[in-house]
Amino acid sequence: MDVEECIPSRRSVRAYQDKEVPEGEIRKILKAGAMAPSAKNLEPVRYIVITDKEKIKELSGKVKEKLKHLGGKYKERAETEEDIVFYGAPLLILLVGNREKWTRIDCALAAENMMLQARGMGLGSCYIGFMNKIEDERETLESLGIEEGQELYSPLIFGYPEEWPQDKEREPEVQNWIK
Ligand SMILES: Cc1cc2nc3c(=O)[nH]c(=O)nc-3n(C[C@H](O)[C@H](O)[C@H](O)COP(=O)(O)O)c2cc1C
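The joint structure predicted for all components is written out below.
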């Protein structure tokens, strides 16, 4: 798939087949992250790969507990058995790093590279900002291997989609073009 097809067809996937992602595919996704640009070429992004279903379920449960406090539709959905956090994805990759000025941006750039790589290989993905609900839970973070002095910046899920969301047209809002 070339880049002009890959970019518009990458959409956030929120329903996954119960099918593991082979290790070789996971390594290609990680490699795409590593190839992203980084400030001062410092390459500060670290990757935590989670394929353990029980661990993913446990994390989903912890985030759901927090979502209950938001009230409204979140509370309602968090009280069901549904995995409203990771959508049944078999692979979670957390992009973490130090607290230096540019690391959050470096992680975001690596994240998009990874989601595009995944799309090119027929895998869906989604950025899971909801995981920030547990970003201060040191014990949980440590259980994942996130070290003291590191932040969780970009949590991503991957897997084989139940179905692909439709491509979507989006136009850039060019505010000014100085010729
Ligand atoms: C920083 C960030 C956080 C996000 N957090 C979530 C999330 O917690 N759950 C979710 O389902 N989607 C999440 N998304 C996905 C967005 O909702 C999605 O990218 C947006 O609706 C556009 O749709 P598209 O990705 O299909 O183009 C997040 C995206 C970004 C960039």
